[in-house]
Amino acid sequence: MLRHLRPALVLLTGLTLVTGLAYPLAMTGIAGRLFPAQAEGSLIRNADGTLVGSAMIGQSFTSERYFHGRPSATVAPDPADSTKTVAAPYNAANSGGANLGPTNPALIDRVKTDLAALKAENPTDPVPQDLVTTSGSGLDPDVSPEAALFQVPRVAKARGISEDGLRALVAGQVQEPSLGVLGERRVNVLALNRALDVQQAR
Amino acid sequence: MTLSGWLQVALFCAIVLALVKPLGLYMTRVFTGASTPLSPVLRPIERGLYRLAGIDETHEQHWLAYAGAMLVFHAAGFALLYGILRLQNLLPFNPADQGAVAPDLAFNTAASFVTNTNWQNYGGESTLSYLSQMLGLTHQNFLSAATGIALAVALIRGFARASARTVGSFWVDLTRCTLYVLLPLCIVYTLFLVWQGVPQTLAPYAEATTLEGAKQTIALGPVASQVAIKMLGTNGGGFFNANAAHPFENPTAWSNLIQMVSIFALGAALTNVFGRMVGDERQGWAILAAMGVLFLAGVAITYAAEGAGNPLLNALGLQGGNLEGKEIRFGIPGSALFAVVTTAASCGAVNAMHDAFTALGGLIPLVNMQLGEIIVGGVGAGLYGMLVFVVVAIFVAGLMVGRTPEYLGKKIEAREVKMAMLAILCLPLMMLGFTALATVLPAGLAGPANAGPHGFTEILYAFTSAAANNGSAFGGLSGNTPFYNLTLGFGMLVGRFFVIIPALAIAGSLAAKKTLPASAGTFPTHGGLFVGLLVGVILIVGGLTFFPSLALGPIVEHLAGAAGQTFAAAGG
Predict the structure, then answer these.
(1) Chain A residues closer than 8 Å to B217 by CB
(2) Is B423 exposed, middle or buried (CB count within 10 Å of its CB: 0-12, 13-18, 19+)?
(3) Which of B422, B432, B423 shows the shortest CA–CA distance to B462?
(4) Which residue among B11, B252, B323 places its CB closest to the CB of A181?
(5) How far apart are CA B46 and CA B38, in angstroms?
(6) How does pLDDT run across B16-29, given as a tens digit for each residue?
(7) Rounded to an integer, what distance in angstroms lies between the CA atom of residue B177 and that of residue B170?
(8) How far apart are CA B28 and CA A114, in angstroms?
(9) B138 and B371 in contact (C-beta within 8 Å)?
(10) Within a domain: residue A52?
């Protein structure tokens, strides 16, 4: 075994420096040149330079004036007791899912409660299921087009604008599946809400 | 299930199949020492490393020396990673001020990455510094993957050689695999990922003010370079806690497709390397065909179950399958396919929470791992795992016709069959043994987040994933406790090395045998009959071993859910 020691230590050190340091640092340099916006996290800034978020990362919306994303199960450490956690939707420093199994009554009850609230908000349309199911990361930036359209009456009422104009705005934000088959039709909620603010500011 | 969903599956299969021959040819050249288009650049680095290490690259090793070299190398790698994790608070590249990793968690994480498992008891963005991610995890992602491939190549040499004493040099196989195969592919792949939206930066976490005026801390880091190797090397350990479900690890439907392809690419191509090195490519295709049959059956079941949805939620009026724990940009087909791919190979990256899958949708990932991840499998590990099953299948065929079993002109005798059974049996011992232990000890029962059969499945999934070196999880289980950190870490080490060493023993004993010429009585091993026999042996061995545990977990949960029953946590 001892005769293996020198090759093991030299190769471990050499290959670690190549793959663990040279490779990620070189890629950071090259990617930063070729795709600077994506390499930095696709960050979005306002005209005055304040950081609003990332185009890739969902954020929490609760106001009636905005379209809402999917329920998020992310948590944060409880400020009162660091061994416990508290709900913190769209916590982009601690991603994660709800991990409720299909026969867990906590899942069924949560969906029932959310369904009742959504039906009260829009009694006419069927509730799209992405509005009552949590995403895997808790940071899903998208909803289905149906989920955005479902919220049109509420947002139109809160903002005092026409529902037809809002529907056109949503339609303009729909991203189609790549090549027609990869992924699902979807709407980026942050982009939609920013477009909404821009439209109303005009 | 939809047509476009199945078109996605077909597109995925077509790309993987198209890559098998070119990658197989290239890797064969790398491992036979032939020159490659990259040699002018890489050869000087390679020779420099050998000179420093005192390695004579023409000197080949007996299987025992090969195994010894591998074990010493891993022990050193384990110590290095453990040290980095424990000391990360004192080391540079730590903008988020992460503290030292606790001893039991550092043991688990080091065991996990050295064995190519990449079980995530650590939280990624909430636990590890940038240096730990790069120097600690990324380098083990490369080296554990290169080790797997090296071992598969050593076993292939055992089949290909006659009357030989050696199976190759571990040092040369490891170095060439890292420099010529993994590194160049990862460089191109990283740039693709960044283009799609994966960050690659050393900047600290971003502090944003949301449209509604709240604060949002956005974790960043050198993500793309690590995601590239975690997929290609079937490691699977996420930069972020949510792994490939996180939009920064897997931002688009394109990145999702390419990530799935990259999980299978090298493992599938190794069947072609096998065919080329034993002098008959059809032998490689036959093995890939057996893998393909099992894979497509798994995709059909998981996709059907997820597409049908959770009966308890459908009863409330939900439509369109089970989206709980899934991301909109992948949808149900993109998530179901990913789950089957990642567990068929030993990747363990997840783009949706397996814990939230329907009972039968989550059954297939579990079964894939219990069969030993031989459906394409981990890079290298899948092929040597499959060849172990081939030895058993050939033995069974020999028993049926009353002839001495032969494979590729080699007599399969008592020693090979004993070693194959040892490799096959150590997995259920770890998976079922520790599951049984955890279901009676209070420290084990404290783990599951869900009650009833689903809680049992969480425990079973954890030990299955650890011993099979997969690393995916039913994430509700609270695994970051001393009990689970230690038992899972132990399961990973046994599941890796107690398969590797018997496989190498088979390699050594086959290499020493003479090759017999094929005769009229030789059972052909490149046709449909052999593929059918191999699939049958795999399912019978797996079925007999694991069916009772599946009946207690996902199967009873499926029946209970269909009957409208739920399982509340005690006191909750």
Answers:
(1) 91-93
(2) buried
(3) B432
(4) B11
(5) 12
(6) 999 999 999 999 99
(7) 11
(8) 56
(9) no
(10) no
Same domain, A77 and A29: no
Whether residues A21 and A92 share a domain: the answer is no
Does residue A186 share a domain with residue A127?
Answer: yes
In a domain, residue A72? The reply is yes
Residue of chain A whose alpha carbon sits nearest to that of B335: A183
DSSP string, B5-25: HHHHHHHHHHHHHHHHHHHHH
Distance of CA B258 to the CA centre of its chain: 17
- Residue B545 to residue B516: CA distance in whole angstroms: 35
Supply the pTM of this predicted model. 0.94
Q: Which amino acid is at B251?
A: P
Please state the three-class secondary structure of B126-165 as a single string.
HCCCHHHHHHHHHHHHHHHHHHHHHHHHHHHHHHHCCCCC
* Domain match, A140 and A79 both: yes
Mutate to test the interface with B, among A61, A132, A135 (most CBs of B within 10 A): A135
- In single-letter form, the type of residue at position B377 comes to G
Who among B134, B241, B451 is closest to A94 (CB)? B241
Q: Where are the domains positioned within chain B?
A: 379-562
Retrieve residue B354's tokens.
């397996």
Q: Are residues A104 and A153 in the same domain?
A: yes
Supply the range of the domain harboring residue A43.
16-47
**Region for B216 from its dihedrals, namely left if φ exceeds 0, alpha if ψ lies in -120 to 50, beta otherwise:** beta
Write out pLDDT tens, residues B360-412. Answer: 999 999 999 999 889 988 888 899 999 999 999 999 988 888 888 889 999 99
Q: Using a CB–CB cutoff of 8 Å, tell me whether B82 touches chain A.
A: no
Claim to verify: residue A34 and residue A108 sit in the same structural domain: no
Whether A150 maps to a domain, the answer reads: yes
Based on the fold, state whether residues A141 and A173 are members of the same structural domain. yes
**In sequence order, which residues have a C-beta less than 8 Å from that of residue B280 and are 6 or more positions away?**
B408, B526
Q: Are residues A43 and A62 in the same domain?
A: no
Residues B519, B510: Cα–Cα separation, whole Å: 19
What is the C-alpha separation between B147 and A87, in angstroms, rounded? 42
ipTM of this predicted structure: 0.95
Strands B406-407, B410-411: pairing is antiparallel
In angstroms and rounded to an integer, the radius of gyration of the C-alpha atoms of chain B is 23
Specify if A4 maps to a domain. Answer: no
> Considering its fold, how many domains does chain A have in total?
2
